[in-house]
Amino acid sequence: MGKVYIVGAGPGDPELISVKGVKCIKQADVILYDRLVNKELLSYAKPEADLIYCGKLPNYHTMKQETIHAFLVKYAKKGKIVTRLKGGDPFIFGRGGEEAEVLVKHGIPFEIIPGITAGIAASAYAGIPVTHREASTSFAVVTGHRKEGAKEEVKWENLAKGVDTLAVYMGVSNLPYICEQLLKYGKNENTPVAMIEWGTTLSQRTITGTLGSIVSIAKEERIQNPSMIVIGEVVRYREKIQWFEQTMEQSYPLSGVL
After folding, report:
1. The CATH number of the domain where 146 resides is what?
2. Catalytic residue IDs
3. pLDDT for res 253
4. Is 206:194 a contact under the CB 8 Å cutoff?
5. 192 is in which domain, residue-wise?
6. pLDDT recorded at residue 257
């Protein structure tokens, strides 16, 4: 019997993966990796390792989740060391829990290697602290994904009234709805909002606005996935402590970053 390592690859910058995460890549016989994993990390793999792409685009999955489960089980039962490499953290909107359940069901040994999630890392690279003594004592990670006509799963009223900072994942296409719900349940239309596109990478781009204005700004700037949406008073601190994009302008003048 082999073993499976479910590894968080971090938010994009390849240097943000953990030391243990790199070790898991180096020792793997098989690596199943997702779309948002920085491909530079695959350079740590053994030359003979099998690299299997499992990427998923919005509304288009290269490989179904059930197929990924089957691969994990198949290779582990062949005695292979399998590294399941996921963007960000595997237990934050990464379906890592589902994969771990499958491994338990089949009696396969596994470990979970946490990763830095984009809600924290992209915010930091944009100069936005998700908590700050004078502005935020709580934050929540929230899915912005919503199927048309499906039952609402996100408790927007609780989030609007009970949490200082919201980090919304997969929310670009549903941005108007997200803003509408937060305003409906009492958030002020002047609440600051940031959108961070390709956070922590050389393609990072950040826009800011308010709940009342961000939809039109995002449309004008053509913000695309993957983007983090950060909502709360902490966004105001970006004006003082933004650093990464300024560093890129100085270090990579031809990078094309806005």
Report:
1. 3.30.950.10
2. 34, 56, 170
3. 42
4. yes
5. 118-251
6. 33
